[in-house]
Amino acid sequence: MALADHVLAGDQRSAARLMRLADDLHPGVPKVLQALFPHTGRSRIIGITGNPGSGKSTLVDRLISHYRNEGRYVGVIAVDPSSPFTGGAILGDRVRMNRHFNDEKVFIRSMATRGHLGGLSKSAGEVLLIMEAMGCDPILVETVGVGQAEVEIAGFAQTSVVVTVPGLGDEIQAIKAGIMEIADVFTVNKADREGAERLMADIHQMLHMLDAPNGDAETWEPRIVKTVAFRNEGIENLAQAIEEHARWLERTGQDEQRRLKRERLQFFGLLRDRLDDRIGEILEQPEYEDWDRKLLHREIDPYRLAREVLDKLR
Amino acid sequence: MALADHVLAGDQRSAARLMRLADDLHPGVPKVLQALFPHTGRSRIIGITGNPGSGKSTLVDRLISHYRNEGRYVGVIAVDPSSPFTGGAILGDRVRMNRHFNDEKVFIRSMATRGHLGGLSKSAGEVLLIMEAMGCDPILVETVGVGQAEVEIAGFAQTSVVVTVPGLGDEIQAIKAGIMEIADVFTVNKADREGAERLMADIHQMLHMLDAPNGDAETWEPRIVKTVAFRNEGIENLAQAIEEHARWLERTGQDEQRRLKRERLQFFGLLRDRLDDRIGEILEQPEYEDWDRKLLHREIDPYRLAREVLDKLR
Prior knowledge:
The structure is a homodimer. In chain A, 52% of the residues lie in helices and 12% in strands. Chain A contains 13 helices and 7 strands. The first copy, chain A, has a 7-stranded parallel beta sheet, with helices on both faces. In chain A, helix 9 links the parallel strand 6 and strand 7. About 4% of the residues of chain A have low confidence. The interface between A and B is large, with 72 and 73 residues.
């Protein structure tokens, strides 16, 4: 249990080692995670999503400095789509965060999505848990805004920040529409560019389209903040908006609701992983040889096969 | 079993009724699907994905006419993200397909994704099965290229077509990068616009970046076709490229590989649905009351709870 103790003391090497062991599905890992679990679940998780080119990584870099100045231990999970096209550019961005690499109170972990547009890799929940056990608070989770991962992060996070930039066409906005709906805070980054005011107005208008006319005083109206991350402008305002959202969550009981949602998601993820393993083992038994080929040629019935597999799960 | 017979005879009303029953989780549905299953699995499934504004729906409309001229029964699944923003525009596009609505050999079904950027609704596999049982071949599956659904469709489809248009910025291309990798055929639609040649060249270049230098003669080099769907130009070339891909699949044995992949995906989807139901029932038992709240407050251990739930699955 020495490893758990070192992680709880905030040691980055031990945490990194535990994450590697988890990736390798080392059989000793569940015991360690079990020991960490009681010390977790209290950190604030902030999702930050934006397209490549939005300056999102620079923004995260500035936020790290902001929270470090408050004396906090900052965790960062940078989620990359594992695409040969975007991979290069995004890794380039990451380099900007390098200056925090020697700070022993900043812990940065990169993670690939499952498939190119897929959701989070199944270890995301474990990485969050380990970071919380280390004492990281807040934990910033950076995603590139192209798919399922953003929605999953929004399920884990208490606050979701969407990074936009002026000068992208309407079609970009349409693509991002789905992401707009998860935003608690918008930032118009590169706000020194032409079109910043127009974009602010557009976001306002979109939010009003979304607004359910229920007159509910408990509704959070997403904040819109201007930043020029490159010149470190507007970062305090952004942090302030995130803080306001946190206070609103607590005041309305939404904080517990969002944390409960995260518990459910993580638990179902855990169950799913275990089940996938067992199902894989069952289908590898000799009697199920070529099950997929037999299904394809309609020699067996998927409904009967499903019943058999479920019966064997025990 | 009258319903199954009517579906097998190609009757659209019966098929629509079965799909509604499936949506409502009617207990009689699995028996009907079981009866249909042996008559399915042979249709060609063609995925067509592109951003809003790419003219994708017009293109699908033209392809329907093309296959109707060949005397084929055409199935279409139009997958919509259920977003209040994009919803309007996309439904507008759909109207263009209306002229096929009275054709008793064209069966069109709209379907929402699960969540805004989520994957296919769990009934997608059932809808495909029912369309195949009706005799639909090919089945065109239209998606808007914003997320997980495209990747799932690519798993079901034998051929994936990606629709691009000239005049979108680099950032759009970056977003779409993940989708590029699933394409068997590209079409540059609205090819009468400025920038069409440039876009063709860009796609060529991207494909060469992807190309693994293994000198494998069995590798499919994605076709790039120009279309102006609005004026019905290039549709024959597009259909020809799709046909070439189909012949390549068969010649190389890849056709069976892709169909096997679909069987596996559909079977795991089936299993997952059944398991989700059972797990939901277990967690509703009195002894697990407030399980999520107890997890949140670290009063119970998720690893132990997971083991208990798995033990009860039987």
